[in-house]
């Protein structure tokens, strides 16, 4: 995608290379892969990440020295700041068009582990949004995992899709959708509650597509293959694809994020329609 030379957001807190110290959260090996698979695109489920990880904390680790970022990491940071600025610009415009007040979230880039209002998390959690502090958290190593372990194409627009999806969860917080979903889950069976979670995640995919539509109109940022990269990432993190990879069978009642087909469909719907009113995933799911 064409991103160099565009505005960069000031709402990024880059903690990569900072000293960790304290307890080391387990994120490697089989446990790390399981958590990464189950919590990819964490959304509202990001609140549970900390609880899982805190129960499996490793032994006390020695503090590590701070280090300078590599040229590649500096470029990654500039890219993420540009993506965040693009999201800010698009959603400011959409909210203004609908007479709504917009408040931009912050984004934290981290390496290894991070403390949030939703608890402690490691890079194995994948990118996630914490509604408790209204911050998006990203460890860029996730995208290599997405490509090598999950079979996604990779590429810069895969990163753009992931960030736009997490930004979509912030939009749901601002609009009250997330709170209404949690309230609707009360008293429901696990299968019924999971269905509502799927609707929330698919709407975030729709918002990612909607952002792509608006940003393309404003910045003409798409290059050949960009949409395919986004769809490849959406396909890789479908519940059915993850379950088949993890356990060799698919259990639809346990889905919390949607199938690969659903995730690709709702991203495409947002991208092609450019109409926020077309994103009512809750009324369109069986």
Automatic annotation (TrEMBL):
This is Metalloprotease. It holds the Pfam family Zn_peptidase. Keywords: Hydrolase, Membrane, Metalloprotease, Protease, Transmembrane, Transmembrane helix. Its main location: membrane. GO terms for biological process: proteolysis. It comes from the Bacteria. The chain crosses the membrane at residues 21-41. It comes from Flavobacterium alvei. GO terms for molecular function: metallopeptidase activity. GO terms for cellular component: membrane. It is found in: Membrane. InterPro entries: Uncharacterised_pept_Zn_put. It is a single-pass membrane protein.
